[in-house]
Amino acid sequence: MKKITEIQDIKTFRIIQAIVLVLAIYILIIKWGNPFGVFFIIGISWLLSLLLPYEYRGGYNKAQKNVFLKNVSPLTENLISDGLIALVVIILYFLNK
Predict the structure, then answer these.
(1) Is residue 1 in a domain?
(2) Would the pTM of this model clear 0.85, i.e. be above it?
(3) How many CB atoms lie within 10 A of CB 56?
(4) C-alpha radius of gyration, the chain, whole number
């Protein structure tokens, strides 16, 4: 498959990837009670992220570049995006309890 190189396409891909990850965690853990299925979803998400250039995959190393926020370091941006995903999952968990 062809790599995604346009910054707008990278933004869209990262947003869709986060939404799919949140929905998968919600369905597999909260609704079905199957925590091991999340590892499958994380693996698929990681494989799909190989379509992105290395600098935009969202990892925690110094070679990363910003996708969404321009005034912070790339590591801070990744921490914020992962924190938002975790916050949404926690909110969904407590709403379903």
Answers:
(1) no
(2) no
(3) 21
(4) 14
